[in-house]
Amino acid sequence: xxxxxxxxxxxxxxxxxxxxxxxxxxxxxxxxxxxxxxxxxxxxxxxxxxxxxxxxxxxxxxxxxxxxxxxxxxxxxxxxxxxxxxxxxxxxxxxxxxxxxxxxxxxxxxxxxxxxxxxxxxxxxxxxxxxxxxxxxxxxxxxxxxxxxxxxxxxxxxxxxxxxxxxxxxxxxxxxxxxxxxxxxxxxxxxxxxxxxxxxxxxxxxxxxxxxxxxxxxxxxxxxxxxxxxxxxxxxxxxxxxxxxxxxxxxxxxxxxxxxxxxxxxxxxxxxxxxxxxxxxxxxxxxxxxxxxxxxxxxxxxxxxxxxxxxxxxxxxxxxxxxxx
Amino acid sequence: xxxxxxxxxxxxxxxxxxxxxxxxxxxxxxxxxxxxxxxxxxxxxxxxxxxxxxxxxxxxxxxxxxxxxxxxxxxxxxxxxxxxxxxxxxxxxxxxxxxxxxxxxxxxxxxxxxxxxxxxxxxxxxxxxxxxxxxxxxxxxxxxxxxxxxxxxxxxxxxxxxxxxxxxxxxxxxxxxxxxxxxxxxxxxxxxxxxxxxxxxxxxxxxxxxxxxxxxxxxxxxxxxxxxxxxxxxxxxxxxxxxxxxxxxxxxxxxxxxxxxxxxxxxxxxxxxxxxxxxxxxxxxxxxxxxxxxxxxxxxxxxxxxxxxxxxxxxxxxxxxxxxxxxxxxxxxxxxxxxxxxxxxxxxxxxxxxxxxxxxxxxxxxxxxxxxxxxxxxxxxxxxxxxxxxxxxxxxxxxxxxxxxxxxxxxxxxxxxxxxxxxxxxxxxxxxxxxxxxxxxxxxxxxxxxxxxxxxxxxxxxxxxxxxxxxxxxxxxxxxxxxxxxxxxxxxxxxxxxxx
Lengths: 325, 500
Hints:
The complex is a heterodimer. By secondary structure, chain A is an alpha/beta fold. Chain A folds into two domains: 2-121 and 251-319, D-Maltodextrin-Binding Protein, domain 2; 125-222, Periplasmic binding protein-like II (D-Maltodextrin-Binding Protein, domain 2, 3-Layer(aba) Sandwich). Chain A contains twelve helices and ten strands. Chain A has helices at residues 2-15, 18-23, 41-57, 72-79, 94-102, 138-147, 162-174, 186-195, 205-213, 261-276, 278-286, 299-319; strands spanning 30-34, 61-65, 87-92, 114-121, 125-130, 153-156, 179-182, 200-204, 217-222, 251-256. In chain A, the strands form three sheets. Chain A has a five-stranded mixed sheet, with helices on both faces. In chain A, strand 1 (30-34), helix 3 (41-57) and strand 2 (61-65) form a beta-alpha-beta unit. The longest helix of chain A has 21 residues, at 299-319. Chain A is globular, with a radius of gyration of 20 Å. Chain A starts with a helix and ends in a 6-residue tail after the last helix. Chain B has one domain (2-499). Chain B has 23 helices and two strands. Chain B has helices spanning 2-15, 18-35, 42-49, 58-83, 92-103, 107-142, 145-162, 167-181, 207-225, 227-235, 244-265, 274-286, 299-314, 316-322, 328-339, 348-351, 353-384, 389-408, 411-429, 434-457, 464-467, 469-486, 488-499; strands at residues 184-185, 192-193. The longest helix of chain B has 36 residues, at 107-142. Chains A and B meet through helix 3, strand 2, strand 7, helix 8 and helix 9 of A and helix 6, helix 15 and helix 20 of B.
């Protein structure tokens, strides 16, 4: 059905002059490809933001979950779709930052093959550990990890996951190499962290906040410039003495390269309006998310972010010898 | 105890409001209707129906989602019995005897006992969650990689015991299943294994694809071989509801299945998949005449179905009390809860007691709804078998394709069910059982990952499996089971089954 729709759209695109076709954009539902399974953090952000965007655009944005290969399956498909504004995608730190280092055969270039729309939400990363780890603050923790390097176990949710890439970054900044233990997803990793089977991990606030509030694990620092209202007692990495560790699992809306500028502008306008809406904002903040700045919400700001993220992740991940293919 | 009663009454106060009752009913109904499409399991159903809960308040939405989950779960059993296509891992065993019952014209009874067994198991599991939910979370935490590996080893031994016919063929099929589970990206290193450079194999083989192929498509091919047996099924629909004799045979398996399923459901890492297999094995061992199993024994439906539902329910315990999803369906529920602004975790019980207890109460109501909806529907489902097969098989094929495509939106998945269908057809022709292969596939992945995790944590020391007491006990049980299964006298019994 979608193929037929795409074919029709292609024919329509040839028949009508570009400008005419775009003037009444959007005149049918828009598909947003979310490259992860329904229910994950990226899917949740996508559903919250598109809920409001649909109202501004006057057309429903339909979420299509195309999961696989750390999100690159869905993004590859979205990158190759018609650049008419009717297929957009929700990219994130992994698919548009870490992926080139992790997947040598990646079929897209995050810095060149997209028309950025704007950032939707930032999700802060926290350094968390089992609750009976002796260190009481981040300095003590780093000391502990370094002196017990042969004993310490670091958990992550699989090669290429947010907890893996941000964990590798942490290790490279601190200058340590603990034993990495891989889990399939954050759930089982947290389970073993709570049980004390593994010692620490780095992960998104939405995953770990309830366990920190419940006293099942402890948090040493949050890797953002400011403290999170959800966890006011957790110091920032800067306060705790590791200011270099600044990292966020951001989510951002992209369209395929070649999408007309006025379509990009319409989509960006809808995104900016959604992020200004009190209810949408509240839902994102409740998750522990950070609302992007005005600059980050713009296409130019997003392009800059992607460029800097690719430049940042590639050496770190290559040095760690991490690859997913 | 006073707490228990007041908590439950708070819960029922919430769940019995007219709106929430309606939502539970609607959820179960829609879940049953979508879930009954072959190949559409609970994950696909919940993902598809998630958006319709967006307009509701959080409690109502969760009650409806839970209803959809139970409905889809039961729908999966319905397709397992009627068309031999298990919707997910836990209904694989239901297909073994359930579909044989359907072929003998006892489809209504199989569906009836499945619904009744599930209701009983659901009731017990609800009480278990309400009374023991909080203390039981400790259980999830003492099961680390070491214990889990040993549990899976025991599960594989179950699979050997479970198999019909030649033990050699059974072991071969289990190993093929384990081998298939290793296809894809290696979890620890990120290296590709056995993918032949094909991009669609990078994430491994999807369980739904494998199950739909070797069970569903293969079954269709086999039916097209000889249409006459199919006609017998059509003509002899028989009674729709179980009679006293059926109940006499089933009540003990239901009790045992409930216990096994509830216990395994609490474990992290999808322990619930073992429930139905364990229940089936147990029933077969306890039966006076184990040969009836695989030929349409009602115990083989009653036990596993109860275990299935009890496990489906108790797997909410780690989610509700720890905020940790034990399997993919529960992970989806976490997403659904966060979309509604509730981040599951230990604080939910104290911060949103009305939501927590309301949801628990609605579990029982959901199970009741399931019974109310499905008992009248049994007649309708069974009548589906009356549809001439030449009309039915294209429809099943089409629904399989739609169902599998809806999970990941990948055309290669559709090609794959055709491939595994051919493989499954050949296996049937050569007398190999697909069920042990599927169990090997499900357990193989968990086993390998937990083995490596345990060894990484112990820095390569194999003794870790014996030093952990729970792990040691599980391995001992596995060893004993294996010895018993291989004893000459029992092997003789096996050979008889095979020649018969």
